[in-house]
Design goal:
The structure is a single chain. This protein is an alpha+beta fold. The protein has 7 helices and 15 strands. Strands 1, 2, 3, 4, 5, 6, 7, 10 and 15 form a 9-stranded mixed sheet that branches. A two-stranded antiparallel sheet has the order 8-9. Strands 11-12 form a two-stranded antiparallel ribbon. The longest helix has 39 residues. The protein is globular.
C-alpha cells in the first residue's frame, strides 16, 4: 500500500517536472496546459486520498478482529490465532487454534492444535456438497468445517502431523482419541486417508477402519458401498461401506437413538450420538 502511494507521488513529481521542462509562457499556463495540469493533479490527489482511506479501513478491520478474538469466551484452555491462508467459505478467514492442557496424564498432548472440525450445538448443517466440503463452511468461532483443500495444504507442509479427536457424550463424559500420524491424499485421490498412526486414548480406536477411504458427499460418491453412504447418513465423510466413526452426521439432542448422528462406535456404540466433537491436527512432536 505504501508502495502504491509512493508511485502516485512519483507520478505527480514527474508531471510537474515535464511541465517545467517546457518553456510555457504565462499565457500557456493560464490556458489549456494549466487546466490539464490541474486536472492531472486533482486526479492524483483523489487517488492518494482513496489509497489512504483503504489503509485506514484495513487498519480498522484488523483492530476489530483483534478485539473480537480477545473477547471470545474460551475459558482457560482455548486460544484463537490467525493464519496466512485464506479460507474461501469460512467466516472471519481464520484457523481456530486450541491449547490443550492436561487431557492425558503424561501431558504429551499439551500444547497448541489447529481445529478442522467442531460440532457442539447443531447450529450448522453438515449435509453439504462436495464443493462446500472442499472449500470449508461455518464460522471458526463456532461450528465449522475447515475444508478439505485447507486440511490437505496444512498436512502437506513437509512435516508429519498427528491427529487428536476430543468427544463428549450426552452424559457429559469427555474422551479422546490420539493418532501419532495422520495424512490425506490430493483432490485427484479424493482426499483419501493415506496414513493413520498409532492409537492412544480413552475413546477407543474407531478411525483405523477408515484408512484408504476416500471422502464422499451426497453429490460425489467415492465410497465402496452399493449406495452412497453420504446420502444414507446425511453428511460427508471418509466412508468405506460405510463407517466405524462418523462425526459429520445429523446433530441429535437428547437420548434419541440414531445411526445418522455423531458416532464413534467404540465409545458411543452404533446408535448413540455425541454431544460434541472436535478434530485437531498439529506437526508431530519428537
Amino acid at each position: 500500500m505504501l508502495a502504491k502511494i509512493a508511485l502516485l507521488v512519483c507520478c505527480a513529481v514527474t508531471l510537474l517536472s515535464q511541465t517545467s521542462q517546457h518553456n510555457y509562457t504565462h499565457t500557456d499556463l493560464k490556458g489549456f496546459h494549466f487546466e490539464l495540469l490541474l486536472t492531472h493533479l486533482t486526479e492524483l490527489e483523489a487517488r492518494i486520498q482513496t489509497t489512504l482511506q483503504e489503509i485506514a479501513f484495513n487498519q480498522t478491520r484488523q483492530l476489530e478482529d483483534l478485539k473480537l478474538h480477545s473477547n471470545v469466551p474460551c475459558g482457560n484452555v482455548e486460544t484463537i490465532g490467525k493464519s496466512n491462508t485464506i479460507l474461501p467459505n469460512v467466516n472471519r478467514m481464520n484457523y481456530r487454534r486450541e491449547t490443550i492442557v492436561g487431557l492425558d496424564t503424561d501431558h504429551k498432548l499439551d500444547g497448541e492444535w489447529t481445529v478442522f472440525q467442531w460440532r457442539f450445538n447443531g447450529s450448522l448443517a453438515f449435509n453439504r456438497t462436495w464443493a462446500e466440503y472442499r472449500a470449508g463452511f461455518g464460522d471458526t468461532r463456532a461450528e465449522h468445517w475447515l475444508g478439505l483443500d485447507n486440511l490437505w495444504q496444512l498436512l502437506a507442509q513437509g512435516t508429519a502431523h498427528e491427529l487428536l479427536v476430543v468427544m463428549e457424550n450426552i452424559q457429559g463424559t469427555t474422551v479422546y482419541a490420539h493418532y501419532s500420524m495422520f495424512g490425506i491424499g490430493t483432490l485427484a485421490e479424493r482426499y483419501a486417508i493415506k496414513v493413520i498412526g498409532k492409537y492412544s486414548g480413552t475413546a477407543g480406536d474407531s478411525l483405523t477402519f477408515h484408512i484408504g477411504a476416500k471422502f464422499t458427499t451426497h453429490d460425489q460418491d467415492n465410497d465402496s458401498h452399493a449406495s452412497n453412504c453420504a446420502t444414507l447418513y446425511n453428511g460427508g465423510w471418509w466412508f468405506k461401506d460405510c463407517y466405524s466413526c462418523f462425526l459429520n452426521g445429523e446433530y441429535v439432542t437428547g437420548s434419541q437413538s440414531t445411526e445418522r448422528g455423531l458416532i464413534w462406535f467404540s465409545f458411543t456404540g452404533p446408535f448413540s450420538s455425541l454431544k460434541s466433537s472436535k478434530m485437531m491436527i498439529r506437526p508431530q512432536r519428537t
